[in-house]
Specification:
The first copy, chain A, has 323 residues and is mostly helical. Chain A has one domain: Farnesyl Diphosphate Synthase (Orthogonal Bundle). In chain A, 77% of the residues lie in helices and 1% in strands. Chain A is built from 17 helices and two strands. Chain A has helices at 3-7, 11-25, 30-41, 47-59, 64-87, 99-103, 105-125, 129-155, 160-184, 190-217, 220-223, 229-232, 238-246, 249-259, 265-277, 280-298, 306-318; strands spanning 92-93, 96-97. The first copy, chain A, has a two-stranded antiparallel ribbon. In chain A, a hairpin with a 2-residue loop joins strand 1 (92-93) and strand 2. In chain A, helix 5 (64-87) packs antiparallel against helix 9. The longest helix of chain A has 28 residues, at 190-217. The A-B interface holds A 27-32, 83, 86-88, 105-107, 109-111, 113-114, 116-118, 120-121, 124, 127, 129, 132-133, 136-137, 139-140, 142-144, 146-148, 150-151 and B 27-32, 83, 86-88, 105-107, 109-111, 113-114, 116-118, 120-121, 124, 127, 129, 132-133, 136-137, 139-140, 142-144, 146-148, 150-151. Chains A, B: InterPro entries: Isoprenoid_synthase_dom_sf (IPR008949), Polyprenyl_synt (IPR000092), Polyprenyl_synt_CS (IPR033749).
């Protein structure tokens, strides 16, 4: 994804954002400050603040509140990544050793908690209660979505409806929150807020569909994951759900048996072929395109601007290397 | 500690509280509900809600807001325990297998996140912004206090001032928050809030001093920890800080060397004797008593009531089996 072009209309704001963000990461505790410096050196892509600023600019004027929203969401995101690495026992993050691998699990979790608390305190200080509501709702949805995913992957009880509930909650919720936050920082117009919230929701779903597609297409350099990691993990995503539904009972049983018994490379190729031959890839691509069209149509009424162009470009980029 | 007597004045409220608490623990996700049932079966002592209700009753009338405060604080506490078990890789909690040992780290962390989000959403729904501020401040202090403790234990750079900063932040902050929350649910009077906040702060510090004392006195049945676990972990608490300050340079160096080199039982007994002979136990006990007196004096002006008697009794119980 070519971010340079997309962030053009909010370049100054993103630079200014770093100042806000940094300010919330430091405290009286030396150890914490050493760790915050370490985190800041491996600067992330700031995709969530980018969505906040672009959404704000699309519907109004970026202001102090927009910076609070972007800071809240990036603090939450940073805390989540740190906690994820503890749970997954990951040694690396963004090409650097993870916090847990350097300072241990306890320190990593505490640093994450500190960032969460700072996000809450920043919002409370500036009476950004709506932001807190949007963000807490996203956190609730993310945990519910991931728990539902684990539950269904254990029971194999998944269909299209459950799949979409999972990916909306675990992935689209935070992207949706970013767009809604940005809009909420400049306007109270419920129709506008509804549009941006749903723009993000549809964009987020398409993004997860792309991720699930790439897993079948072996583009490791984009997802950074080993090819077919979902199949290896016994994760059933849309391409497979569709193929299973459209194959014979005998065939679908055979594929399910393969997936649930530590498949080897030979088995993986068999499953990929099965999914392709029953149209699982084409179908998922078509559905992803529909979500992107829905996202784009939700912001089509706003008058043309650089921010609008960037958001539309962002939507186009989602399926760029897939279709 | 005899809780039955202490909770007498708020017995009905504690029962009613269970209903509020339960309601926030369930969702559409089956797996989550199974886990919540499991957690509710091993009912905790509800010490934090008890402090909330007693503090509310001391200064006013318990109302709907008091229940929100108690629920918020118990959700936060439950989430913290679950996350702690992941970080410490604990297999047991309250005599039952921990969530992480049954469902794995990922599920445990997600369930904790869900409870946190529910606590936030409950407070936002009822516009309990003051509660959110008090609680977020406590979370920030807890993470800072624990990080400072880890930092100083690595550098050995600890004196009485740093020690009190650590225990205020890591332990007293949440007890203080409970008392302030209870009071804030019934009154806006800043003087009253100040008193209850500081009652909790002093009580919390005394409670940690007692814990640190018991570690030297080997009362495993009370702390539930192995005797002298602080010495074994190289943790320097007030009894030792005092003894080190009052011994010769040569002696204090020797003790520090012992502590920092995986002490065996023989070494542990030596350190305990050292601390006792230089008055570290007596001094810590005296300081703890002073904090309890300060706590009690902060609520002495309130007119006599069953709630007041309970809070005073709670303060007396802190050092019951120690002095």
């Amino acid at each position: 994804m070519n971010l340079t072009e997309i962030i053009q209309p909010i370049k100054t704001e993103l630079l200014e954002f770093e100042r806000f963000f940094k300010k919330m990461m430091f405290s009286k505790v030396k150890l914490l400050n050493i760790i915050s410096h370490y985190i800041l050196r491996q600067k992330g892509k700031r995709i969530r603040p980018t969505l906040v600023f672009l959404s704000a600019k699309l519907v109004g004027d970026i202001n102090e509140s927009t910076f609070h929203a972007a800071t809240l969401v990036e603090l939450l995101h940073t805390a989540t990544l740190i906690h994820d690495d503890v749970v997954d026992e990951s040694d690396m993050r963004r090409g650097f050793p993870s916090l847990n691998s350097i300072w241990g699990n306890k320190v990593a979790v505490l640093v994450g908690d500190f960032f969460l608390a700072q996000g809450l305190l920043l919002s409370l200080k500036h009476k950004e209660y709506r932001f807190l509501h949007i963000t807490s709702e996203a956190v609730r949805r993310m945990s519910e979505g991931e728990l539902l995913e684990i539950q269904t992957s254990r029971s194999n009880d998944i269909d299209e409806e459950v799949y979409f509930r999972i990916i909306s909650d675990k992935t689209a919720s935070l992207i949706s929150a970013c767009c809604e936050l940005g809009a909420a920082s400049t306007t109270d117009d419920e129709v506008v807020l509804y549009k941006l919230k749903n723009f993000g929701e549809n964009l987020g779903i398409a993004f997860q569909l792309r991720d699930d597609l790439l897993d079948y297409m072996g583009e490791t350099s984009i997802t950074g994951k080993p090819v077919a990691s979902d199949i290896r993990d016994g994760k059933i995503t849309l391409p497979l759900i569709y193929a299973l539904k459209n194959s014979s009972r005998k065939e679908s049983r055979r594929v399910m048996k393969i997936i649930k018994n530590n498949p080897r490379n030979k088995d993986i190729f068999y499953v990929i072929d099965f999914v392709k031959s029953y149209g699982g890839i084409d179908y998922t691509l078509k559905v992803a395109e529909e979500y992107l069209e829905r996202a784009k149509s939700l912001i089509s009424d706003f008058s043309d601007s650089l921010a609008k162009a960037s958001l539309l470009k962002l939507a186009d980029f989602v399926l760029e290397r897939v279709s």
